[in-house]
Amino acid sequence: MTAPADPGAVYPVGLRLAGRRVVVVGGGQVAHRRVAGLLEARALVTVVSPEVTPALEALVAPGSVTWHQRGWAEGDLAGAWYAVAATDDPAVNAAVAAEAERDRVFCARADDRGLSSAWTPAVGRQGDLVVGVHGGGDPQRAVGVRDAVLTGLTDGSIADRASRTASVAPGSVVLVGGGPGDPGLVTVRGRQAVATADVVVADHLAPQALLASLPADVEVIDASKLPRGRSMAQEQINELLVSRALAGKRVVRLKGGDSFVFGRGYEEVEACVAAGVPVEVVPGVTSAIGVPELAGIPVTHRGMTHEFVVVSGHVPPGHPASLVDWAALGRLRGTIVVLMGVDTAPAIAAALVEHGRAADTPVAVVTDGATPAQRTLRTTLTGLAATITDEGVRPPAVWVVGDVVSLGA
């Protein structure tokens, strides 16, 4: 006889389903969500349903899921450790639950929690930590509490001291791309790394709000490189990362944008590897794409451009240190995104026009992207120099050349 719905009667337990057979009856969106969680637990999943969602079907071809393309049949739970009844037919779900009850297999009915022998909690994961919340019969309540706990673990307001302690020896470095400025655009993995750091070596373009939430015992080192101003030498940054890691600290190198897009991140990886320091790279949202996007400008658009190029403008065309083929860029029809190119903008615009780009090609200059001070200035290649001067544009700024600029207007 099936137990009645009583929130107080739930016994929370973690099922270790790796390598064990689980049967999901149904192929819709609910089934898809359940399968995703079961695969994360490395269960051997069998789906029984005449039809499945495209996302579920995509899991069948590589062998992640076994699909019986038919309706439910008595005996389908043979050998199963756990079952999910997730069809649109209550009679089928009842039959699945009845067989599960008879065979002593716990079963979650998606259509009726009261008739389920197992309730699926709201689950969240952070590394090897799993958070599961039962909401006393209210799924939305469970989701809200789960999300609050995960947010706290991510931003450090809920301290997972065991995780930090375990990560200290023998020392390591994580390069975190912090995105274009808004702390909300940092990846979940990036936030986790910062929240568990012993030392954070940060640039001025990194999301500063993340630093404010760190515990007082976390060492924060300012490694800013101001344009034509004070800056920490790259060699000194490399030495800091290595020395702190060799001292047994978990070191996070927090940068703006993405560490490998004009961020000299790979030089830091090389320094760590040479010193025998374990190093991890966490990609970030690069300002080359994120900042134009926040201004409403797509770097590609169907029927308008089939390519986009990201260019460093820190040295002008014709400079002995320049590695850019400006003649080739002038012949392109697609989008050009220029980073670190405020002072050199007039020379770059002139070179593009000289080598074939139309003088009236639209240009957008986005300053202070992903911050409350963000603004977008619109001009053309021939008008760019005057716009930079008249509007007092200073770094950080990203400017975009191409027909896509007109879309954001």
Low-confidence regions: 1-5
The proportion of residues in beta strands is 15-25%
Number of helical segments with 4 or more residues: 13
- In the sheet with the most strands, the strands line up as 3-2-1-4-5
Radius of gyration: 27 Å
Average pLDDT, rounded to a whole number, is: 90
Shape, principal axes of CA atoms? globular
Order of helices and strands: EHEHEEHEEEHHEHEHEHEHEHEHEHEEHE
Number of strands: 17
Helix fraction by DSSP (H/I, runs of at least 4): 25-40%
CATH superfamily of the largest domain, please? Tetrapyrrole methylase, C-terminal domain
CATH class of the largest domain: Alpha Beta
GO molecular function: NAD binding; precorrin-2 dehydrogenase activity; sirohydrochlorin ferrochelatase activity; uroporphyrin-III C-methyltransferase activity
GO biological process, one term: siroheme biosynthetic process
Domain Tetrapyrrole methylase: 173-384
Pathway: Porphyrin-containing compound metabolism; siroheme biosynthesis; sirohydrochlorin from precorrin-2: step 1/1
